[in-house]
């Protein structure tokens, strides 16, 4: 299977990085740097093949094969260093094994069991996240059909302007394997990467041994994390880059040389190439970093710190340059958003009262499930009424959404609350504040800066973005960054450590239930969670979040295949599903062609072949006229999706 070329390529690259003099800093340091460099290579290959319009299976097989061969040659030339590196890895592994006490072994097996369940869950289930069906995976089939990343007219404008790196990775995985069986595994792999960065952050603040396992448990048991790790969303991917940006920002200030600044630039660049929320979450980290660089420059009269920082910024910009350029060509703005699109996400009115309103509503998203969700919802509504405000104000709520409080259902990846971890974060802030007020414990300055950065992240998020019921998943980077804070707070209050260990045990049990009863990809089903069963056919599982449309979509898809149509005209709503119609595009020449597009992407000029048929989710007529052709509706009995084509 061609996907093995990519996996082998990464392993060989990791070993190659490990044999360089600069990377002799242990497994974690080598792994993180390898991931960042490999991400750069993957993005470069994607952009290069796109530029020449050869973004296809054959090109990727050739390029990754050449890359793997080059790594093999390099490793052969460095075989003495390779032996030393492998010996060092083995020694580290043996030291790790010997340091594990009985409780650590139990924790290890529990963590591995949950991770194995999540990995298997993502493989035996097709991608079926709502947003993935709408744009995450739908944009990939469009790229494949045109063999490039060029923007195109689409009713779902997020397919073109949203940052694309997570989809780049899925694109390579799916194109090489010629199916989508491993699409969900991408976020799982980045979850493992997050664990590596988290442990490195703990080392920087002196929590390596005692709290390593607790931190690992806390990270993998965040409900949104464990749910998204088997989906094709991008919040775990962006969390990795935000964590690594934080790590290298600290290391750049503590260590000399350009090295860490380069990796800081890579981390920041890929964070903002993955998800727009990275701008918000990185802002306080980079603010503190920038101030520290200026202070060091003025104190030491060495301008190398400033020059290195500029180099890091240029690296981040360069990584995003191609995507910025495509967006600018479409909209005249590097972010690609029109005023209408921006108003859907950004608060239309701002002020202290609006911030407090959104801050409280965002907090309440994690105060669930039932009955806590109902209690918190009523409390928030009453607070708004007392303040003379409307919790359902459309100027501060996402269009069409009324304030609902936390989800009663704790097993859906879009809206699952993180109640235990939120409580631990509150306790951590309280314990650190208590230590500062009493002045009886010296608090690590890095922890103070981290705590302030997390608070600023929460403030910026609530001040700028409209409330959405699915904000719990967008908060994922904040919850991950808070884990070192939680561990440190309990370290300086040792008498409470046993309670943290109890919380970790509870979190493991809760996480297991969340995995088993996952609403979209369940092992166990109940009438309260989902109508999908683990034994259902793979094609049916794709519609777990839209089961009522399963038969209509599948019948239309079957008709397209029977009639041999390739150029598929689309008239869709901005939230309608597209990917299920093109899930076979990896092996069949299917091209989505959006017609009658009225949004900003409609101005994009591309070569558009004549459509063979039209599929609509918004127009229900007996006939559609397009380019002087009469397309007749052959699914008049359908309620959700209609299929039009010309009778031959």
Write the layout of secondary structure elements.
Blueprint: H1 3-18, H2 27-51, H3 57-77, H4 79-99, H5 102-124, H6 130-136, H7 138-146, H8 158-161, H9 165-177, H10 185-204, H11 212-220, H12 223-228, H13 235-254, H14 259-274, H15 278-300, H16 304-331, H17 339-345, H18 352-364, H19 372-386, H20 419-438, H21 445-464, H22 471-474, H23 476-491, H24 497-516, H25 538-541, H26 550-563, E1 567-571, E2 591-594, E3 613-616, E4 623-626, E5 629-633, E6 642-645
Parallel strand pairs: 1-2, 1-3
Antiparallel strand pairs: 3-6, 4-5, 5-6
Helix pairs in contact: 1-2, 1-3, 2-9, 2-10, 2-14, 3-4, 5-11, 5-24, 10-11, 10-13, 11-23, 11-24, 13-14, 13-15, 13-23, 14-16, 15-16, 15-21, 18-19, 18-21, 20-23, 21-23
Brief rundown of the structure:
This protein has 648 residues and is mainly alpha-helical. The chain is built from 26 helices and six strands.
Can you walk me through this structure?
The chain has 648 residues and is mainly alpha-helical. It folds into three domains: 1-99, no CATH class; 104-137 and 180-544, no CATH class; 546-645. It contains 26 helices and six strands. It has helices spanning 3-18, 27-51, 57-77, 79-99, 102-124, 130-136, 138-146, 158-161, 165-177, 185-204, 212-220, 223-228, 235-254, 259-274, 278-300, 304-331, 339-345, 352-364, 372-386, 419-438, 445-464, 471-474, 476-491, 497-516, 538-541, 550-563; strands at 567-571, 591-594, 613-616, 623-626, 629-633, 642-645. It has a six-stranded mixed sheet. Strand 5 (629-633) and strand 6 (642-645) form a beta hairpin. Helix 11 (212-220) packs parallel to helix 24. The radius of gyration is 25 Å and the shape is globular.
